[in-house]
Design brief:
The complex is a heterodimer of chains A (497) and B (165). Chain A is mainly α. Chain A is built from 21 helices and two strands. In chain A, helix 4 packs antiparallel against helix 12, helix 8 crosses helix 19 and helix 14 packs across helix 19. Chain A is globular, with a radius of gyration of 22 Å. Chain B is mainly α and 165 residues long. Chain B has a two-stranded antiparallel ribbon. Chain B folds into two domains: 69 residues; 88 residues, no CATH class. The chains are: A mainly alpha (497), B mainly alpha (165).
């Protein structure tokens, strides 16, 4: 009951006109980002981070969160109507969603996706409300060794799940940690890896890293082979038939469950729950052979799962301070830029912000449902903007964003450096999510490690003698061994082939 | 069929060289102090991890079956030119924002990119350049209170500034 009282207080905050306006704006911008091919939620939130600089902490977090779930919905529009996923999570929706659009049922597919996203998002937020206080109270028992072990578990999961190759995932994580070491050492006040460059003394901010890796890197890659989207489908009726509704109920609830539990696992990413939910529907269907030809179940389940995932992924962030994906890491960066540390103390020190943002998830999901269906023709018209104009405008915005981060052209240059790194990593299939996760977690992890070793006077057994820490490290070892076994089996399989 | 063997060998070598540099740099910092682990402690272990991982990557690339190289790994010359154009425009912006100011820098940045990235009608180039350089400047400076850099030659915009401020 206590949590619901806090939630009501949160609603009182997020129903203030300025926050409502920001939620609407975030949903609009997010949907636009989702619609535009080549600009995913991570790139979009990274590029728009500077827009929130002048805002209050609560407004900036509400805006970025709305951009995030708006982008997840926007990606569906292009998947269904153009067969080009606006973001990776919507790729599976192309199969049946586009087939429905070809039959003139695009409107129904989008309506079911919107309803499923609404239900999935709200159920996951309800989970956050239920779990927030118990998890937070549990996390308050954590000392530095437990926090270090918790972050270690998060990172081991993120690196083992983020890439096809565990080695490449680990390399990305170590590179991120090393980037996080740049700047003045927080304990001794000694510059590290700055090579005499004064602008590096404060470390490298989240904006050039996120904007470079996800934004500029992606644009460089897509500019190599720019193609315009071709719209050859019809929206048709905007409301699903009674039969389509009936067939969607089960997939929506199963998708909610799969997305919700997927969001709780750091590093799993949104692709896995969406693909699993599609696979589950196909498996339990009486007509699995019809999947791919325009089955409403193939739209309802993955679309619900991806929004349930997005909202559930906020649970580890809000309660434990662990970002579970690249976009959540960027949102965590926004918290930190506003002087807030997500995690158990957020609920005790800034309950207004924590509950205001949580309440805004409900409002944002409702806004997306009400606003987006009538606006689909408008979103589709954005796809007709020629690629050179679109990319030029995005790049111009990125220049402003990277400059405004620190009011320095050094940041603009750094953004290009990270853009080139992102471009190379994409070509080499080195995952970028672990980099951004470790850049955010690195300083906290180092602080926790050093404090733990100060407590134990240099004795590493402190991590194994404290029960919670030992259990967490045990889990990390299990995850790493499982991934190694999977990798070895894959290598053997490849050699046999 | 071309594979990813060579790109991964090169990447592993670069990462190994980087790990050597970081190990050297972290050894210049204090490893341990009376207060506990020093500033060099964590980076030292990280650089060792990077060295080991780069060696594993090199081993996998050289002695194990390599992944096939994706078709778009090496793109057309035109594609590379477009990507290079973006880099050149970005370098121009980074170098000129402070000496020239936002408006003059972007008056070059936008048309250059529009010409490099594809065919755009001349009036669209003019429109987007004005929108991106002048209108954006006033929106950010006046509406969003995010001052963009002003250069010594920005006096040419004084008549517009007098109208708007």
């Amino acid at each position: 009951m206590e949590a619901f009282q806090f939630l009501m207080d949160g609603f009182a905050i997020c129903f203030q006109w300025q926050y409502l306006l920001i939620t609407i704006l975030g949903c609009l911008v997010g949907t636009l980002i989702g619609v535009l091919p080549g600009v995913g939620p991570a790139a979009g939130t990274a590029m728009l981070l500077p827009l929130t600089f002048g805002m209050s902490p609560i407004a900036s977090i509400i805006m970025l969160s709305a951009i995030y779930y708006g982008a997840m919905y926007g990606g569906t529009i292009t998947s269904v109507l153009v067969n080009v996923p606006g973001e990776a999570a919507s790729a599976i929706t192309c199969l049946d969603g586009h087939a429905m659009a070809k039959k003139g049922r695009g409107g129904s597919a989008l309506a079911i996706a919107a309803i499923g996203s609404f239900i999935g998002g709200n159920v996951a937020t309800f989970g956050l409300v239920l779990l927030a206080l118990p998890l937070t109270r549990f996390a308050l028992k954590f000392g530095p060794p437990e926090f270090f072990s918790l972050m270690f578990v998060g990172l081991s999961l993120a690196t083992s799940l983020a890439s096809k190759s565990m080695v490449r995932g680990l390399i990305a994580a170590v590179i991120g940690l090393l980037i996080a070491m740049i700047g003045i050492d927080p304990v001794m006040g000694v510059p590290r890896f700055t090579f005499g460059a004064v602008p590096l003394f404060n470390g490298i901010g989240i904006v050039p890293i996120a904007m470079g890796l996800f934004g500029i890197g992606e644009l460089l890659l897509t500019a190599e082979g720019s193609k315009s989207a071709v719209i050859n489908t019809r929206l048709g009726e905007m409301w699903p038939s009674r039969e389509e509704f009936k067939r969607s109920i089960g997939p929506i609830f199963r998708g909610t469950g799969i997305g919700f539990f997927g969001g709780l696992i750091p590093g799993l990413g949104v692709l896995v729950p969406t693909f699993i939910s599609y696979a589950v529907e196909k498996r339990i269907s009486k007509t699995p052979e019809k999947f791919g030809t325009g089955m409403i179940e193939g739209v309802a389940a993955p679309e619900t799962a991806n929004n349930a995932y997005c909202n559930a992924a906020m649970i580890p962030l809000f309660t434990l301070g662990i970002p579970s994906s690249a976009v959540i890491a960027i949102i965590m960066g926004a918290f930190m830029m506003n002087g807030l540390i997500p995690g158990p103390f957020l609920f005790t020190e800034h309950p207004d912000i924590a509950w205001g943002v949580i309440a805004s998830f409900y409002v944002g999901n409702l806004i997306l449902l009400i606003m987006n269906l009538p606006m689909i023709p408008l979103w589709v018209s954005f796809l007709r903007i020629p690629i050179p104009i679109l990319y030029t405008l995005i790049l111009g915005f990125c220049v402003i964003g990277s400059y405004c981060a620190e009011n320095s052209t050094f940041e603009v240059g750094l953004t290009l450096v990270f853009g080139l790194l992102g471009y190379a990593f994409k070509k080499l299939d080195i995952p970028m999510a672990p980099i951004i996760l470790t850049v955010i977690l690195g300083p906290m992890m180092e602080r926790a490690l050093r404090q733990s070793l100060e407590m134990s006077r240099g004795d590493f057994t402190i991590f194994f003698t404290r029960p919670i820490s030992a259990v967490l490290l045990g889990l990390a070892v299990v995850f790493v061994i499982t991934s190694l076994m999977k990798m070895t089996a894959q290598v053997k399989e490849d050699q046999e082939v | 069929m071309p594979t990813m063997k060579r790109p991964y060998q090169i990447t592993a070598s670069i990462l190994f060289a980087l790990s050597v540099l970081i190990t050297y740099e972290s050894l210049q910092l204090k490893y341990y102090t009376p207060l506990g682990p020093g500033p060099g402690f964590f980076p030292f272990f990280l650089s060792l991890c990077l060295a080991v991982l780069s060696l594993v990557m090199f081993y996998h690339a050289t002695f194990k079956k390599s992944d096939p190289r994706p078709k778009d790994f090496i793109d057309s010359h035109l594609g590379y030119l477009r990507a290079l154009g973006i880099c050149v425009a970005w370098i121009w912006a980074a170098a000129m924002l402070e000496p020239l100011g936002y408006r003059l820098t972007m008056l070059v940045f936008f048309p250059f990119l529009l010409l490099i990235l594809g065919r755009v009608k001349w009036y669209m180039i003019v429109l987007i350049t004005l929108l991106g350089s002048l209108v954006t400047f006033y929106v950010f400076s006046i509406q969003l209170s995010a001052p963009l850099p002003v250069g010594p030659l920005d006096g040419v915009f004084e008549p517009i500034d007098n109208l708007l401020y």
